Amino acid sequence: MVLAAWSMAALVVLAIVHGAGHLPAWPAGLAAWVAGVCLWPRLDRRQRRFALVLGALGVVALLVAWWQGLPTPWLRVLTQNTALLGMLAAVSFLQLVGLGAAAEPPPEGRRARWQTLFGVHLFGAVINMSAVFIMAERMAAGSRLSRTQAAMLSRGFLAAALWSPFFAAMAVALTYAPGARLGEVVAAGVPLALGVLWLAGQLPAGRADAGEAPFSGFPMRLGALWLPATLSVVVMLGHALLPGWSSLAIISAAALALAMLSAFFGSGLRAGTRRILDHAEHRLPAMSGELLLFLSAGVFATGLQALFAQGAAWMPFAHFGPLQAAVLLAVMMGLAALGIHTVVTIVMASAWLMPLSPDPLLLAMVFLQAWAIGLALNPMAG
């Protein structure tokens, strides 16, 4: 696992340097594939089968494109999702910061519902699934979450996929909707997220558990919101001051820098360094599932892009507007409910629609909504 850990750490650094325009993408891609080979034994049988099928379909598509005399970008297999994977690994270091829960007893009642809903949304938008785990453990208090508690956490967390620059969904959307700008996507996603959060707080969680106690939430402190606020400011400043950097590189560098500074100021130079190294050694290899998922999805995407590059695929419509976007979103939601991972449908839709030159913002928003809703629907999603 040492080689895998160092390879993933190298992936983070090389992806940032590539996004800054100082290196080609293949060194970061090579580091990702070395880590993937090392971490393959950690996958369970279902994960291995899924990665093999996805990768095999991509290779077959590439071979068919080559046989038909179409341009075959074999090197893109190495680099397709490099920036995306680098961002996911960099953002994982934000787990070193923590949530800053208050010491008082957990709040209860209607106010606690809203406090928990927005708390898991804001911190989930930054440190992803770790926020759900931390808050769920505190709220369960050694027992089990109630149905309402579980609903508040899952709804608030998934709504962050609609706008968060630090969510895997955003990295996927920016990768597979070429031309989409981070600022425009965030501005379009925030109102959607607020609407979802309002609905989440109003709608019941389904059939109430028998004898369910009043809602017990997570004791958030207002001062703990410095993390999402600071990250947002740093990312906006990065876009203004570093126009030559890619969006994913700015996000990766901001997350990594803030996590390291927090570790140093909170634990001291020596202990902070130890925490960072421990994270790299143990937490980065634990991302084996995400790593192999996006590596295999990259192979799949490369194959489909090679096949559809000439615009030979069948199209049920001549252009991609709001109506077509709604139909596509409904189909992607239906496929998610059947157990097909949203990253697969995003890759397929991106390759299929590219000959139509769809509006990047519209396409990115479809992908984000498909991710936010699809992960809740998908019985195979984590």
Structural description of this entry:
This protein is an all-alpha fold. 69% of the residues lie in helices and 0% in strands. The longest helix is centred in the N-terminal third of the chain and has 23 residues.
Structural class: mainly alpha
Low-confidence stretches: none
Structural Rg: 21 Å
What percentage of residues falls in helices of 4 or more residues?
A: 55-70%
Morphology: globular
Number of strands: 0
Mean pLDDT: 85
The proportion of residues in beta strands is: under 5%
Q: Could you give a short account of the major beta sheet?
A: none
Per-chain topology:
Elements: H1 2-19, H2 26-39, H3 45-67, H4 76-79, H5 82-92, H6 110-127, H7 129-140, H8 147-159, H9 168-176, H10 182-202, H11 226-241, H12 247-267, H13 269-283, H14 288-308, H15 322-337, H16 342-353, H17 360-377
Helix pairs in contact: 1-2, 1-5, 1-12, 1-13, 2-5, 2-14, 3-14, 5-9, 5-12, 6-7, 6-8, 7-8, 8-10, 8-17, 9-17, 10-17, 11-12, 12-13, 14-16, 15-16, 15-17, 16-17
Structure keywords:
382 residues; mainly alpha; 17 helices
Describe the structure concisely.
Helix content is 69%, strand content 0%. The chain is built from 17 helices and no strands.
